[in-house]
Queue: 2 jobs
Job 1
Amino acid sequence: MVEHTVFSKVFNQIERALPGLKTLEEARLLGSLVEALLQNHGSTEENLFYLTLDHEPGTKSQMDQLHREHQEIDARLRQAQLAGNLEEARQLLTAALQTTREHFRHEERVAFPLIEQQLHAAAQKEFGHAWMHADSDRPALVVQP
C-alpha cells in the first residue's frame, strides 16, 4: 500500500531525529505527528476490513487480530505521550514505530490479499448478476467453432 510506504519514510526520518532531541516536548510533538498520521489511516482500514471481510467465514480471527494491533499501536503512542522523561519517550516512540511497521507487514501479507480476493469475487458476482438481468434486447452470445 502506498500509504504504508510514505509512513515508513516518515518513520525513518523520525527515528533519525530521535537521538538529537533536546526536550521531552520535542518527543511528544513527534509522537503527536505519528498519531495524527495513523488516526484516519487506521479508521479507514478498519472500515475497509469490516466491509469486505465481516461476512466471510474464517476471517473473524484475522479481523480481530488487526483490530488488536491497532489498539496496541494506539496504546504505545499514548504511553510515549505520557512518558516522564526524554529517554523513556524515545524508547516508547521507537517501540510504537516498530509495532506499526510489523502491523503494516501483517496487513500487506495477510489482510490485503484477503480483501483483494473478496473484492475480486464480489466484482465478478456483481458483473454476472448485472449480465443476467440486463435488457433482453442484448444480442445473444454465439460461439463459432
Job 2
Amino acid sequence: MSLRWSYLFALALVACNRAAPPTTGTVSDERFHSTIVNDDYILRIRLPVGYESATRSYPLVVQLDPTYVGLHEFDVSAGLVSEHAAAGQWSEAIVVGIDYPDPFTRERDYRLPATPVPDYSGDAADRFYRVVESEILPYLDGKLRTDPAHRILVGHSNGGVFAWYTVFRHAPPAAPLFSGVVAADCGFDEGMFTYQRWHAARSQSLPLNLYASHAVYNGAVQKILFDAMIDRVHRANYEGLTLRAEELETDHGGAIYPSFETGLGMNLGGGK
C-alpha cells in the first residue's frame, strides 16, 4: 500500500473508532533528540493520578502512532488505563506516546528492512529498535518511576508491524525489551516470517504476553497471513509465552479500541 493511500485509508476510518475515555492524571509533551537517527521525537507522557506524592514504580505503556491521522491512539490507551485503574480493574501505569513532528516519519521507523540481516544491524525497524532500547527507554527510566520489568508496547497498523518485530528480537538470556506486546490489525510479509524463523531456531523461550488482532473487513489475503503467523507461533510452543489472537468483526480503524482494551487488560489486569 502506498504511503498516500495508507494515509487516506486510515483517515477514512477515523469515524469508526469509539470515543476514548477521559484521561486522568497529568499529560505533557516534550522533545527528545535521538543521536542514532539525528532527529527529534515528541514524547507524550501521561502520569497517573497521585504520581507526584507516591513513591512506587509504575508499569510503562509505550504507545506507537499516538496521534497519527487523527486516530487518537494515545488518548485511547491513556483513557483506558485511566478508566480501568480508577475502577480497580487494572494497575495504574505511565503511558508514553512516541510521536513525530512530521507524522510520516513513522515510515522510516516502522517498516522492516528491505533485506533482513541476522545481526539486526540494518536500517528501518532495526535502527528504531536501537533508538527505543538505547535512548528512549533509558531516558524514561531515568526521568520517571517506571518498572523496567513491566513494559507494554502498543501498536496498530504499521505500528503493529513494529510491535510484532520486537517480539522476535528477544534473545535469551536477556529479558525481552517489553514484557507485553499489543499488535492490532497489521499486515505481514516474508520479512516477518523470516524473523520468526530466526527466533525459533535460536530459542524456545519467549517470556511475554502477546495480544494480536485481525479485522475481518480487511479481506482474505491479510487473514491468511495472520492465521499463518499465529499457527507458526502456536507450533513453536514457546516457553513463557501467553498468546491471545482474535479476529474482530470490524474494519481497520474499528480494531483499535477493542484491541487496546483487551491487550492492555492482559498486561495490567488485576489492579494494584
